[in-house]
Specification:
Pfam families: NQR2_RnfD_RnfE
Order of helices and strands: HHHHHHHHHHHHHHHHH
Structural class: mainly alpha
Distance between the termini: 61 Å
Low-confidence stretches: 1-8
Shape: globular
Radius of gyration: 23 Å
InterPro entries: NqrB, NqrB/RnfD
Helix content: 55-70%
Mean pLDDT: 86
Largest sheet: none
Modified residues (FMN phosphoryl threonine): 224
Number of helices: 17
Number of domains: 2
Number of strands: 0
Organism: Shewanella colwelliana
Cofactor: FMN
Amino acid sequence: MSKQDKKPDVQSDYYAHGQSMRSFFRSLLYLHGRSTKGKVHVRDAIDVKRTMTLVGLCLLPAILFGIYNLGVQAQVALTSGLSTPDVWQLFVFNGLTGGLTEQSGLIGLFGYGLSFYLPIYFTALVVSLFWEVVFAKVRRQELHEGFFVTALLFTLILPVSTPLWIVALGITFGVIMAKEVFGGMGYNFLNPALAGYAFIYFAYPTEVAALSQFVAVDGFAGATTLTQAAAGNLSFADYSWYQAFSDPTWWNAFFGFTVGTMAETSTLAILLGGLMLILTRLADWRIVAGVMLGMILTAVMFNLIGSAKNEMFAMPWTWHLVTGGFALGMMFMATDPVTTAYTRKGKFIYGIMIGFMTVLIRVLNLKMPEGIMLAILFANLWAPLFDYVVARSNMKRRLKRNAL
């Protein structure tokens, strides 16, 4: 064989990769033409594309309500004498409706929120797609559809006024440093969306965590429910957990008519989407149950300990459920099938750790009352160890049983 024959056919490889890229974009709308035929394969209708599509559909209730709530909170701010900002995002909205007013209805409120959400989502989507294409070309692999959900989850935990350059920077860090450097989809051990958010949260706190970022009006200085609780503005003295169900303020937080990020406010919408995720078996109920159990036990422990200086000690678990990003993290972030534990017992322990760490951070670190982000990233690091311990325990038990 000559030296020329030994050279790889680069042109042929790039042609094949181009065919794969075209097949990917066609498969977004049409059924993929290839399927396995051998007897050793499990053949069903679930692939990466359909999995990501189902996750997106499950997120739809939280997204739609979140967009509407952006308009609601802006309208409430207008009644306080504030004004809408003079920004390019509102060019089309103001041209079609004349701007947001105190009399704007459902369509106007939804359109106002959509004007701010779409630029953020498209920025995250395009940047995420760019890096996915770059790494797919370098590795000569197929382009996976995971970037759709990564971009979606990343934007849902951002404040409405986050600058687009920070959005691009955050999703870049999440995709590259939390996923691609470890081999791409299926090889990452950290949630890319949360890793990207953690990076910009600590790198640019005044641009991401500032209270003025949560409502799209000029001069807004309100606070989220969780921030108010951490500041001691909400009193939970002699407040039992079941009293929340007769408290209008709690129901307001449960339905989502509060200040918050893009789509974390409505616990009801998130739980409805999360239930669909569990019913389709894309999320494991053991993780959700573990997170809830860990959160409830830890909250009750702090309630019993009590503190005269820290009001968060008295915060019941019913309020932990409806404040911050707990519900979104529990249903859609912690259940990421790639970064979670794989054994059944490991998943339950993994969930308990997240619930425990969330309340621990919220109560003891008042400068960062939102603990679900760090709790999930911390548990991601421990997930392989949980699986290892469970597997070793099973092996020892079987060896002992067989030796008898």
